[in-house]
């Protein structure tokens, strides 16, 4: 396989096959943790780690795992890596553990990971699967950060608050004040309805971006058929 | 009496205030995927409620009496780190058992739920409710009530939203909003209406 197609596997996840906005996978953590941009980074990195590791292991075992029991096998592999991430986060970034709460163990049932295992890793080689995992993970992280930024800036007026717990050098109460404190923030953006709303707008934006230059009719169907 | 009040308060909080779909963002995939038609929405929600209660009934004792660090205190073993793996396997086994059982003994229900059963394993509400019950320190009865409330809450959200969705689908929207994006905006409005329930349960069942 040429370098060009390897690059394509990697960049596919950024926009064209963005797991959240185009394939509509992993919507639960996307909505739940993006009330702050820094939570988005933490969640994105944790999911990327699990995605790469489980893609590698599943792709290496794809000829050994019997077809009938493949889903339980995949889930066990994924759950193993999620436990590893859970322990690492608990030990080194306890604040992030508190912020993500139940959504950290719930990476197990994040459909992006099982979806990529089923759609990609079970049919492709180890290197390609690792690249696919990395690309999808980056696409997921970018989406979470963009969404978290919009919600945080509108909802609490700050940006990247809580980043200090990820990068200790920044200090514990690091935050960039975007909207002056004298203006009341639009609090609803950080709660549930704001999450749905921003997600809808972003998804419409992604559809517009990917379907506009080509003027193809396929894009609307791709969005519609992605969820199950 | 106090016990009953507490249970009722947990039950209604799970349905109205802490609704898993509209307030906690769990189970969004089936919420968006299966809420197009009323009957499939009801079928999916009933299957989810059933598995949720069963899964809680199975995982609570296993965590408390086998895995929990408190139980293992004083001995050399601490299996708490196995929680995620054990729970997801229990849920997968439970769903498989349930499928076989229904197929053999209640074929009518199996046919009605058939398609949705396998999907439930990866539904995050199930794993979510089992973990949150333990995080909240509920006892066995409270956990079961909480799971039932979460299931009914899921049903309420699905049924309400399938109605909203039928209207949305007939509306004329900009091209890029067609399909899911406009559905999500509609979900935002539905979720906004549920925010109005905040505090209502505490006020009614003051324990």
Structural class of chain A: mainly alpha
Largest sheet of chain B: none
Spatial order of strands in the largest sheet of chain A: 1-2
Spans where pLDDT lies below 50 across 5 or more residues of chain B: none
Global mean pLDDT of chain B: 83
The major pleated sheet of chain A works out as: 2 strands, antiparallel
Low-pLDDT runs of chain A: 215-228
Individual helix count of chain B: 11
**Mean pLDDT across all residues of chain A, rounded?**
82
Shape of chain B: globular
Specify which chain pair forms the largest interface.
A-B, 48 and 47 residues
**Helices and strands of chain B: which structural class?**
mainly alpha
Based on CA atoms alone, the radius of gyration of chain A comes out at 18 Å
Describe the structure.
The complex is a heterodimer of chains A (228) and B (207). Chain A is built from ten helices and two strands, in the order αααααααβαβαα. Chain A is mainly α. In chain A, helix 1 packs parallel to helix 7 and helix 3 packs across helix 4. By secondary structure, chain B is mainly α. In chain B, helix 1 runs parallel beside helix 9 and helix 3 crosses helix 5. The longest helix of chain B is centred in the C-terminal third of the chain and has 31 residues. The model of chain B has no long low-confidence stretch (mean pLDDT 83).
